[in-house]
Design brief:
The relative contact order is 0.20. Strands 6-7-8-3-9-10 form a 6-stranded mixed beta sheet, sandwiched between helices. A 4-stranded antiparallel beta sheet has the order 2-1-4-5, with helices on one face. The protein has one domain: P-loop containing nucleotide triphosphate hydrolases (Rossmann fold), CATH 3.40.50. By secondary structure, it is α/β, with parallel strands linked by helices. It is built from 11 helices and 10 strands. A hairpin with a 2-residue loop joins strand 9 and strand 10.
Protein backbone atom coordinates (compact mmCIF):
# COMPACT_ATOMS: atom_id res chain seq x y z
CA UNK A 1 0.00 0.00 0.00
CA UNK A 2 1.32 3.45 -0.88
CA UNK A 3 1.63 6.13 1.77
CA UNK A 4 -1.15 8.07 0.10
CA UNK A 5 -3.46 5.09 0.27
CA UNK A 6 -2.79 4.88 4.00
CA UNK A 7 -4.81 8.08 4.46
CA UNK A 8 -7.93 6.31 3.27
CA UNK A 9 -11.32 7.90 3.29
CA UNK A 10 -10.10 11.51 3.20
CA UNK A 11 -9.68 13.38 -0.06
CA UNK A 12 -9.52 16.95 1.15
CA UNK A 13 -9.60 19.23 4.13
CA UNK A 14 -11.91 21.99 5.29
CA UNK A 15 -11.44 24.08 2.18
CA UNK A 16 -12.47 21.29 -0.17
CA UNK A 17 -8.78 20.99 -1.09
CA UNK A 18 -5.72 23.15 -1.33
CA UNK A 19 -4.01 22.52 -4.62
CA UNK A 20 -0.31 21.95 -5.02
CA UNK A 21 -0.10 24.72 -7.59
CA UNK A 22 2.60 27.25 -6.87
CA UNK A 23 4.43 25.07 -4.39
CA UNK A 24 8.12 25.85 -4.01
CA UNK A 25 10.62 23.03 -4.22
CA UNK A 26 12.37 23.12 -0.85
CA UNK A 27 15.71 24.80 -0.73
CA UNK A 28 16.31 25.40 -4.43
CA UNK A 29 17.15 29.03 -3.66
CA UNK A 30 19.41 28.32 -0.65
CA UNK A 31 23.08 28.11 -1.58
CA UNK A 32 24.84 25.69 0.80
CA UNK A 33 27.67 24.83 -1.58
CA UNK A 34 30.21 25.84 1.08
CA UNK A 35 28.52 23.81 3.84
CA UNK A 36 26.82 26.17 6.31
CA UNK A 37 23.10 26.81 6.02
CA UNK A 38 23.08 29.43 8.80
CA UNK A 39 25.80 31.95 9.52
CA UNK A 40 25.65 34.52 12.33
CA UNK A 41 28.64 36.83 12.63
CA UNK A 42 29.12 39.42 15.38
CA UNK A 43 25.39 39.77 16.06
CA UNK A 44 24.46 42.16 18.87
CA UNK A 45 21.01 43.15 20.12
CA UNK A 46 20.23 45.54 22.99
CA UNK A 47 16.95 46.22 24.77
CA UNK A 48 16.92 49.36 26.93
CA UNK A 49 20.64 49.06 27.57
CA UNK A 50 20.59 45.31 28.21
CA UNK A 51 22.66 43.33 25.70
CA UNK A 52 20.54 40.29 24.86
CA UNK A 53 23.11 39.25 22.24
CA UNK A 54 26.72 40.34 22.50
CA UNK A 55 28.85 39.80 19.40
CA UNK A 56 27.31 36.37 18.82
CA UNK A 57 28.86 34.25 16.08
CA UNK A 58 27.42 30.85 15.17
CA UNK A 59 27.51 28.53 12.17
CA UNK A 60 25.08 25.66 11.47
CA UNK A 61 25.97 23.16 8.74
CA UNK A 62 23.49 21.91 6.18
CA UNK A 63 21.69 18.85 7.56
CA UNK A 64 23.09 19.32 11.06
CA UNK A 65 21.27 18.71 14.34
CA UNK A 66 22.51 21.37 16.79
CA UNK A 67 21.46 21.73 20.43
CA UNK A 68 21.54 25.16 22.06
CA UNK A 69 21.57 25.36 25.86
CA UNK A 70 22.21 28.02 28.47
CA UNK A 71 20.69 29.71 31.52
CA UNK A 72 17.64 31.95 31.33
CA UNK A 73 18.63 35.27 29.82
CA UNK A 74 21.49 33.76 27.82
CA UNK A 75 20.06 35.05 24.53
CA UNK A 76 18.55 31.87 23.10
CA UNK A 77 15.14 33.34 22.28
CA UNK A 78 16.62 36.58 20.93
CA UNK A 79 18.91 34.53 18.69
CA UNK A 80 15.89 32.75 17.19
CA UNK A 81 14.08 36.09 16.87
CA UNK A 82 16.98 37.43 14.80
CA UNK A 83 17.07 34.34 12.58
CA UNK A 84 13.33 34.55 11.88
CA UNK A 85 13.20 38.32 11.37
CA UNK A 86 11.20 39.16 14.50
CA UNK A 87 14.13 41.20 15.85
CA UNK A 88 16.64 43.20 13.81
CA UNK A 89 20.24 43.11 15.06
CA UNK A 90 21.94 46.34 16.10
CA UNK A 91 25.19 45.01 14.63
CA UNK A 92 26.48 41.96 12.80
CA UNK A 93 25.16 39.81 9.95
CA UNK A 94 22.81 36.84 9.66
CA UNK A 95 22.84 34.78 6.46
CA UNK A 96 20.76 31.79 5.34
CA UNK A 97 23.05 29.90 3.02
CA UNK A 98 25.65 31.94 1.17
CA UNK A 99 23.44 34.62 -0.34
CA UNK A 100 20.26 35.25 1.66
CA UNK A 101 20.70 38.19 4.04
CA UNK A 102 18.05 37.63 6.71
CA UNK A 103 18.24 41.24 7.88
CA UNK A 104 16.81 42.32 4.52
CA UNK A 105 13.73 40.07 4.69
CA UNK A 106 10.41 40.17 6.51
CA UNK A 107 9.29 37.35 8.81
CA UNK A 108 7.01 36.02 6.07
CA UNK A 109 9.79 36.14 3.48
CA UNK A 110 12.14 34.29 5.81
CA UNK A 111 9.54 31.57 6.39
CA UNK A 112 9.01 31.26 2.64
CA UNK A 113 12.77 31.06 2.08
CA UNK A 114 12.81 27.87 4.14
CA UNK A 115 13.13 28.61 7.87
CA UNK A 116 10.45 27.19 10.17
CA UNK A 117 10.11 27.96 13.86
CA UNK A 118 8.19 26.05 16.49
CA UNK A 119 7.49 27.92 19.71
CA UNK A 120 7.32 26.25 23.13
CA UNK A 121 3.51 26.34 23.30
CA UNK A 122 1.99 24.37 20.41
CA UNK A 123 -0.29 26.29 18.05
CA UNK A 124 -2.71 24.11 16.08
CA UNK A 125 -6.21 24.49 14.66
CA UNK A 126 -7.97 22.69 17.49
CA UNK A 127 -11.36 22.31 15.81
CA UNK A 128 -9.86 20.76 12.69
CA UNK A 129 -8.64 17.21 12.34
CA UNK A 130 -4.99 16.21 12.30
CA UNK A 131 -5.25 15.73 8.53
CA UNK A 132 -6.83 19.13 8.01
CA UNK A 133 -4.12 20.82 10.07
CA UNK A 134 -1.43 19.32 7.83
CA UNK A 135 -3.38 20.27 4.71
CA UNK A 136 -3.85 23.85 5.83
CA UNK A 137 -0.12 24.14 6.53
CA UNK A 138 0.87 22.86 3.10
CA UNK A 139 2.58 25.38 0.86
CA UNK A 140 0.06 26.03 -1.87
CA UNK A 141 -1.85 28.65 -3.78
CA UNK A 142 -4.58 29.33 -1.24
CA UNK A 143 -6.40 32.01 -3.20
CA UNK A 144 -10.16 31.54 -2.94
CA UNK A 145 -10.76 30.69 -6.59
CA UNK A 146 -8.10 27.99 -6.47
CA UNK A 147 -9.42 26.50 -3.23
CA UNK A 148 -12.92 26.29 -4.66
CA UNK A 149 -11.88 24.39 -7.79
CA UNK A 150 -8.99 22.25 -6.72
CA UNK A 151 -8.55 18.99 -4.87
CA UNK A 152 -5.51 17.46 -3.29
CA UNK A 153 -3.37 15.61 -5.79
CA UNK A 154 -1.97 12.14 -5.21
CA UNK A 155 1.41 13.71 -4.51
CA UNK A 156 -0.15 15.98 -1.88
CA UNK A 157 -1.81 13.01 -0.19
CA UNK A 158 1.49 11.15 -0.31
CA UNK A 159 3.29 14.00 1.45
CA UNK A 160 0.63 14.24 4.15
CA UNK A 161 0.69 10.48 4.71
CA UNK A 162 4.48 10.41 4.95
CA UNK A 163 4.37 13.25 7.47
CA UNK A 164 1.74 11.43 9.52
CA UNK A 165 4.05 8.43 9.68
CA UNK A 166 7.02 10.59 10.65
CA UNK A 167 5.22 12.34 13.50
CA UNK A 168 3.52 9.07 14.54
CA UNK A 169 -0.04 10.39 14.25
CA UNK A 170 -1.37 8.14 11.50
CA UNK A 171 -3.84 6.55 13.92
CA UNK A 172 -5.08 10.04 14.90
CA UNK A 173 -5.62 11.30 11.35
CA UNK A 174 -9.36 12.10 11.78
CA UNK A 175 -9.14 13.21 15.42
CA UNK A 176 -9.73 16.91 16.21
CA UNK A 177 -6.41 18.48 17.15
CA UNK A 178 -7.93 19.90 20.33
CA UNK A 179 -8.39 16.35 21.68
CA UNK A 180 -4.74 15.37 21.26
CA UNK A 181 -2.38 15.08 24.21
CA UNK A 182 0.14 17.86 24.78
CA UNK A 183 2.90 15.80 23.22
CA UNK A 184 0.80 14.90 20.19
CA UNK A 185 0.01 18.58 19.62
CA UNK A 186 3.75 19.30 19.67
CA UNK A 187 4.33 16.59 17.04
CA UNK A 188 1.45 17.90 14.94
CA UNK A 189 2.90 21.40 14.94
CA UNK A 190 6.26 20.00 13.85
CA UNK A 191 4.40 18.15 11.09
CA UNK A 192 2.72 21.40 10.03
CA UNK A 193 6.14 23.01 9.75
CA UNK A 194 7.36 20.08 7.66
CA UNK A 195 4.47 20.56 5.24
CA UNK A 196 5.97 23.99 4.48
CA UNK A 197 9.16 22.28 3.25
CA UNK A 198 11.70 24.08 5.48
CA UNK A 199 15.42 23.64 5.08
CA UNK A 200 16.04 24.85 8.65
CA UNK A 201 13.86 24.01 11.67
CA UNK A 202 14.09 25.94 14.95
CA UNK A 203 12.50 24.00 17.83
CA UNK A 204 12.02 25.91 21.08
CA UNK A 205 11.80 23.60 24.13
CA UNK A 206 10.03 20.83 22.20
CA UNK A 207 9.70 18.48 25.19
CA UNK A 208 8.49 20.95 27.82
CA UNK A 209 5.54 19.41 29.66
CA UNK A 210 5.87 16.01 27.99
CA UNK A 211 5.69 12.60 29.63
CA UNK A 212 8.79 10.41 29.62
CA UNK A 213 7.37 8.32 26.76
CA UNK A 214 6.53 11.42 24.71
CA UNK A 215 10.01 12.81 25.35
CA UNK A 216 11.58 9.61 24.06
CA UNK A 217 9.46 9.68 20.91
CA UNK A 218 10.32 13.34 20.36
CA UNK A 219 14.01 12.49 20.58
CA UNK A 220 13.51 9.86 17.88
CA UNK A 221 11.65 12.40 15.74
CA UNK A 222 14.41 15.04 16.05
CA UNK A 223 17.06 12.49 15.13
CA UNK A 224 15.05 11.34 12.11
CA UNK A 225 14.74 14.92 10.83
CA UNK A 226 18.49 15.60 10.82
CA UNK A 227 20.06 15.17 7.41
CA UNK A 228 16.84 15.84 5.55
CA UNK A 229 16.63 19.16 7.39
CA UNK A 230 18.94 21.28 9.48
CA UNK A 231 17.55 21.29 13.03
CA UNK A 232 18.33 23.66 15.90
CA UNK A 233 16.90 22.55 19.26
CA UNK A 234 16.77 24.94 22.22
CA UNK A 235 16.00 23.00 25.38
CA UNK A 236 16.57 22.93 29.17
CA UNK A 237 15.97 19.18 29.62
CA UNK A 238 19.54 17.93 29.80
CA UNK A 239 18.57 14.25 29.65
CA UNK A 240 16.81 14.97 26.36
CA UNK A 241 19.78 16.94 25.06
CA UNK A 242 22.16 14.14 26.00
CA UNK A 243 19.97 11.68 24.07
CA UNK A 244 19.94 13.62 20.79
CA UNK A 245 23.04 15.83 20.93
CA UNK A 246 25.65 15.65 18.21
CA UNK A 247 27.06 19.12 18.81
CA UNK A 248 26.09 21.45 21.63
CA UNK A 249 26.44 25.23 21.83
CA UNK A 250 26.25 26.90 25.23
CA UNK A 251 25.14 30.54 25.31
CA UNK A 252 25.86 32.86 28.23
CA UNK A 253 25.21 36.59 28.39
CA UNK A 254 24.49 36.73 24.68
CA UNK A 255 27.67 35.02 23.47
CA UNK A 256 28.95 31.51 22.83
CA UNK A 257 30.52 30.24 26.04
CA UNK A 258 31.42 26.74 24.84
CA UNK A 259 30.77 24.45 21.90
CA UNK A 260 31.44 20.83 21.03
CA UNK A 261 30.35 17.25 21.82
CA UNK A 262 28.10 16.82 24.85
CA UNK A 263 30.79 15.13 26.96
CA UNK A 264 33.21 17.98 26.32
CA UNK A 265 30.65 20.66 27.11
CA UNK A 266 29.51 18.93 30.31
CA UNK A 267 33.10 18.79 31.56
CA UNK A 268 33.85 22.45 30.82
CA UNK A 269 34.35 24.27 34.16
CA UNK A 270 32.81 27.46 32.77
CA UNK A 271 29.64 25.64 31.75
CA UNK A 272 29.41 23.89 35.10
CA UNK A 273 29.76 27.24 36.88
CA UNK A 274 27.19 29.23 34.93
CA UNK A 275 24.67 26.55 34.02
CA UNK A 276 25.04 22.86 34.83
CA UNK A 277 26.09 23.46 38.42
CA UNK A 278 22.88 25.27 39.27
Amino acid sequence: MSAAAAVHGVDAGPSGALAGAGMRVAGTDVDTSHGPILYLDGVSVSFDGFKALNNLSLTIDDGELRCIIGPNGAGKTTMMDVITGKTRPDAGTAFFGQTIDLAQLTEAEIAHAGIGRKFQKPTVFERHSVFENLELAMKADKRARTAVRARLSGADLERIAETLELIQLRDQVHRPAGLLSHGQKQWLEIGMLLMQEPRLLLLDEPVAGMTDEETLRTAELCQSLAGRHSVVVVEHDMDFIARIARKVTVLHEGSVLAEGPMDTVQADPRVIEVYLGR
